[in-house]
């Protein structure tokens, strides 16, 4: 019978054979040890060797694939003994070469005892195809994955788009009333910028019914707008709000503008003041300085400047508890923290009549700041309390108890339950939705799907004002730029970078100011401490110059260390050009609009691209030219 053994098995057999041979030689030399009477074995030591051989053999067998139909093997120990006793002294090589030798297959207990020549070949292992790497998707395809389809289909707007504002009866496509257009001309605005041209038709539909203050059955869609700094985003929401609200009869809180800083609140309030004058809004006292009637428009600001009780009395009638709440203002411009205070703690303060919720400018920053989960609280307060109770909210979210206290108003249909039993749903209540339209503006719009989802946008539409020369790109590169956070800069901005040794930064800055005419400048540092140090150093330099008869430049620090009134005064002096250089931290890097700023210097590099975009955006606004200088330390260059 021919058998086939694996080379490894042969080697083991060889080893055992050699061992036995050696022992036999020993026995020949020394007197033979008596075999065990009972077992017939030669000695204990031989037994031990046999055990080792068995263990080796067992290992070998385990490493071999055992076929399913493997026949029962003979008992190995006995077979081994038989083999070792009966083996002639032959050359090992001969034994291993002679496949006909019956000894070897028996001794190793071959795992595949062959039965016929056709079964000699081992069963082939199943074949699996080699793994291959799929082609990597392109960067753009990856960037667009999982995005809101509305963002992918964003409306692209060329920055060069403008629309003339006529003064006659014909609105020229602006959708603005005659009075408002006249008011715009009065303040020197004769055409709409790109972002305004794109947004006004969406926010002021031609059909009068779509401009209604209550659209519970056909609620308006929300808008997200990405446009460069200084491109006129403020007017893009101020104009439609004034135009829409000017039709209202009863004063209710209908527009809420949430801003990250007090300075921005003041700035936006001024824009509302300037444009709402003469539009027929009801006469009311403005909340700026207590007891001081500045104008007669109904615009409130809640920023924490005044005592809380003072703000409350300016915003609402505190008693008695009124159906639908109460409001002395139509438009509220505020910071998030103070807003939550009023939602929670001011009786009769209600958002159920809200028509516009604007989270402007720094939507990304506002969303980044938790502010007691302000957005969720505001959205909850603008909805029917019944619908909030029934809905699944995040486990951390607790709607303010006050919104359940406020009684719904018959003129806010989404709030009013026809049966006056809020917990019993009816088909009528299900269909009605809040009329609040959310408007989100930023130069650095977030692409974070989680953050966008947290806004609870309703059928959102995106507008992107960016790079007109890319219109023909099939990949919609403007959308990609937003998605991949490649922010667009104003076209009139010139950017410069100076690489310096850190010890020479003050000198280089001093050189720029006097040799590159860097005045009317905002200089950004990394901290309040760094701000005051640079100002002191600069004043020291200027003193030295004045000793030589040269008129010194006025440099001031603007930081969070200063009290509010001082900050306001400094900003006013800078606006009126009494201060030539304002050194500040990132406190005023966002949204502040000072027309004569011709230079922005990043004395310390900003920590991220968003900060850079907002910093340099303080110049080159509204089509004016501007320069941005960034001083980069040598080690910072290496790092990037
Ligand atoms: N249609 C217009 N015609 C002339 N000037 C305009 C027009 N629209 C806006 N401006 C002016 O452009 C400047 C910048 O406007 P705005 O502050 O709204 O920009 P922005 O896009 O909000 O900038 P940022 O993102 O930095 O806040 C302001 O001084 C504003 O008065």
Automatic annotation (TrEMBL):
Query: What is this protein's name?
Result: ATP-dependent RNA helicase
| Ranges of biased composition (kind: Acidic residues) | 44-54
Select a single GO molecular function from the record's annotations and give it. Answer: ATP binding
Q: Which reaction does it catalyse?
A: ATP + H2O = ADP + phosphate + H(+)
Give EC number(s), comma-separated: 3.6.4.13
Please report the stretch or stretches of sequence annotated as the Helicase C-terminal domain.
Answer: 492-640
- Return the annotated region ranges for Disordered: 1-125
InterPro entries named in the record: DEAD/DEAH_box_helicase_dom, Helicase_ATP-bd, Helicase_C-like, P-loop_NTPase
Q: Where is the composition biased (Basic residues)?
A: 11-31
Q: Which Pfam families match?
A: DEAD, Helicase_C
In which organism is this protein found?
Answer: Panaeolus cyanescens
